[in-house]
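If your schedule permits, I should be very grateful for your opinion on a structural question. I would ask you to consider whether the tokens describe a fold that such a sequence might reasonably adopt. Thank you for your consideration; the sequence and its tokens are set out here.
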Amino acid sequence: MQDLAFVFAGFFVGFVVALTGVGGGSLMTPLLIFGFGIVPNVAVGTDLLFAAGTKAGGTLQFARRRLVPWRVVGQLSLGSIPAALATLYVLHRIGPAEPAVQRAITLTLGVAVLLTAAATFYKATLGHARQRQAAPPPADANPTQARHWALPIALGAVLGALVTLTSVGAGAVGVAVLLLLYPLLPLPRIVAADIAYAMPLTLVAGLGHAAIGSIDWPLLGLLLAGSLPGIWLGARLTERAPQRLLRSILSLLLAYAGSKLVLA
């Protein structure tokens, strides 16, 4: 019966991610911790490889449509991958099962989920209005040129550490960072960049967690088995769904989950 519940959890998260574009870590990791009693480090590690599998398919689809700005992906990865490796080294040295580490993961996860809730709410309310009011870019502007060359590396490092520690941050928070760094990049390419840079990041972080024993492999298989049909169904319904309403409701749910994690 519990195996079926894990499959349904994967289906639910895959469906919501495909329907709204919100990162799966902000949903899956709190669900595993509070809904199923999985310890935080195993929930994070398992969700990272779960995310790597789903984002690989998304990256392939965007690459086929030539929407991935690989220069942007490379700039963010220069910061995120080394930061992920450094975070994994610290976790390995301290021990991921230590109570202090578990508490740090839970607290940081709560903050990351709250940030995701805020970004999701902004996107559902003010984001559409700002996008309509935006002035057209100059004809000679390079949309993949960041405001400053060091910003993508620095913010990529912050995201890399955040994702490795919590499995959250590569979705709505990543999109918010990309919108800040590359204001001239069209929204479909922003989404493509977010998914494409998050794929190697979650894979590296997930494999690192596997090396220190923070992966539940049978659980990972059950989650992936449920997520694939969920993603398929959500993608088919995304154009008909009331996006602003769904994201507003989802932001409230994420705010509740994040608050519960911070206060746990």
User: Anything to note?
Assistant: Residues 99-124 form the longest helix (26 residues).
